[in-house]
Amino acid sequence: MSHIDTSIEVDVPVRTAYNQWTQFEEFPRFMDGVRQVRQLDERRLEWHAEIGGKEVIWRAEITEQIPDARIAWHSTSGAHNAGVVTFHYLAPSKCRVMLQLAYEPEGIVENVGDALGAAKLRIKGDLERFKQFVEAQGEESGAWRGEVRHSE
Known about the structure:
The chain starts with a strand and ends in a 15-residue tail after the last helix. It has a domain at 2-21 and 62-137: START domain (Alpha-D-Glucose-1,6-Bisphosphate, Chain A, domain 4). Helix content is 24%, strand content 41%. It has helices spanning 14-21, 107-115, 118-137; strands at residues 2-10, 34-39, 44-51, 54-66, 70-75, 81-91, 94-103. The chain has a seven-stranded antiparallel β-sheet, covered by helices on one side. 16% of the residues are buried. It has three helices and seven strands. With 152 residues, the protein is α+β, with helices and mostly antiparallel strands.
């Protein structure tokens, strides 16, 4: 199991960054290799991506979602992955977005790429593109303010 912990400061309010992150179907606009994300319902997502030159599809379930604070998930099909993204107030128009991800590389290409740090570079690039995306807009393109708790 591999782990990535990274963060980025974003020059928008916490609420704006969080609201934009809840727009999962827009992830292909800033996540490298992600071709499509379909939100099946409030908790379930279907991902289509290219990883190591291979098309992959998996499903994920949101296990916890607290507005302006955190979104946690784990895969329910495909390669094992799980993580949490948290949002931290720094100033009225500045926040920190922190991402923790655990994943299981599959196959020789993914394992070699993982050993060389490709996944960490990709995730850092995704956060940088998220920062550019949300700062350029100046406001979120939508929001889902509902909550998902572990016990549900």
